[in-house]
Amino acid sequence: MPNHTARPGYYKNPILHADYSDPDIVRAGDDFYMVASSFNHFPALPILHSRDLVNWTIINHVFSTFNDATYDTMQPGKGVWAPSIRHHDGKFWVFFSTPDEGIFMSCTTDPHAEWSAPHCVKLAKGWIDPCPLWDDDGRAWLVHAFAHSRTGRKHQLQLMEMSPDGRSLLDDGQIIYDGALDNPTLEGPKFYKRNGWYYIFAPAGGVETGWQSVLRARSVQGPWEARIVLQQGETHVNGPHQGGFVELENGECWFIHFQDADLYGRIVHLQPMHWQTDDWPFIGKQQATDAPGQPVIEYPLPSVAQHPQGYLNPQTSDDFARGYPGRQWQWQAQPQADWLQPTLNALALTCQPMREYQGELALYSQPNLLLQKFPAREFCVTTVLSAGFQHEGELSGLIVYGERYATLALSQCKGQRKIVLIAAWMSDTGRLHQQQRDIADWPSNAPLWLRVEVKSGGLCYFSYSENAKDWQAVTPYFAAGKGKWVGAKVGVFAAANQHSSLPGTGVFSRFAVDV
């Protein structure tokens, strides 16, 4: 259940206090589907489903592997950026970019089932945030933004004609809007057509403090005019922007967007939206005459809602049935077959060699960390570890991960098992600093219960137990930090100081998340 409650008949924002960055949404009949950026994490591109816009579950990912060996190693901040999802011609389509490779497309007739392998629509470095539009005359279009870090270009949106099958671009494109003066850092476009108008919903102003703009034109060629339709106003919701809208059968419209919440990532809000008589959208609630809308904190539930907020939430706890992680989990890189050992009713992670980072073995760039998003502002995670270590220097445990991270783990050292606390952080100069402290010796065959309580502000309190009743606190506490373009994560891992043909394991029989 969420750690906040609304009045009966109302919902409260954020609807998801979890890092579903750059969300987009589509309605198909009575069902709603949401996608979000996944960056370097695999499986990639989560698909969430809802019947009422406030209760969401993870039903799938668009792909588990990418045809690029670069992603076999951790690529922080790269991978899938700002996808869009559409329902057209009996299919669901997702377009996305990877900032160093290009624009890709995947489709399916059933979002719960397998998606087609990502198809490269355009090889291009720094072409990001693509969104398609199939027009009434049978022609198709694609709009996208530019990553300044790769192209030296910023603030601009480019439009190209696309083949109706979504597999290729038919021209070199044209810049249809440059927001350098009025909408700096214009990006994340979402393309629509309504009432004879073409609309592009696009965030501007930057992630932490930006706003939501809308462009419109009578022709895809322009001229395009812009209006700010949502900004922070008098609320605490900084930078409310980047998302998409849906219209219900009864004409209700709803806009979904993110808020940058620092270490918690980009959390998801739902705003009421309506169309004014001049065919401009208005999002949120009025803050002043002739001013853009501002976010709602509490609002009546959508008409399609049959249950209160929190009836269904994205998955967190896991009993690892059949020996595999649930849909809430992602690896730090493209997964390899030898990261898991088949077992029943437990997760057996093999101790993979630690990678060197800046000349030192560290978990920072470890690809086989198995992590999930922080699910709330405050929560508690409990897991139980049975170590099947075979070699000196093997290590397995519970980790809170970001640009700084900490783990309470069990290690094999000089023939003895020890509970250790490892913490690391990135200095302002980009240097990784790491500390390790021995906490206690531990019997070889005894399971170890591990816990972390996350308090407001990301303060993490680790503890351990032999029976899940008598807990021994570990000091000091740890302050979680965000990752590269993502919020902090929590999860489990198994690692080793060196390669072995017969590695040991860290076996986790449950992972309980209490919010």
- Number of DSSP strands? 42
User: How far is it from the N-terminal to the C-terminal residue, by CA?
Assistant: 6 Å
Silhouette: globular
Strand content: over 45%
Q: Residue-averaged pLDDT, rounded?
A: 96
SS summary, helix count: 1
**Helical/strand content category:** mainly beta
Q: Output the radius of gyration.
A: 23 Å
Helical proportion? Answer: under 10%
How are the SSEs ordered, and which strands pair?
Layout: E1 10-12, E2 24-28, E3 31-35, E4 44-50, E5 57-63, E6 81-88, E7 91-98, E8 102-108, E9 119-123, E10 127-134, E11 140-146, H1 148-151, E12 156-162, E13 174-178, E14 190-194, E15 197-204, E16 211-217, E17 225-230, E18 241-247, E19 253-260, E20 266-275, E21 281-283, E22 285-286, E23 293-294, E24 298-300, E25 330-331, E26 340-341, E27 347-350, E28 352-353, E29 355-357, E30 360-362, E31 370-373, E32 379-388, E33 395-401, E34 405-413, E35 416-426, E36 432-442, E37 448-455, E38 459-465, E39 472-473, E40 478-479, E41 489-496, E42 505-514
Parallel strand pairs: 28-41
Antiparallel strand pairs: 1-24, 2-3, 3-4, 4-5, 6-7, 7-8, 8-9, 10-11, 11-12, 12-13, 14-15, 15-16, 16-17, 18-19, 19-20, 20-21, 22-23, 25-31, 26-27, 27-42, 29-30, 31-41, 32-37, 32-42, 33-34, 33-41, 34-35, 35-36, 37-38, 38-39, 38-40
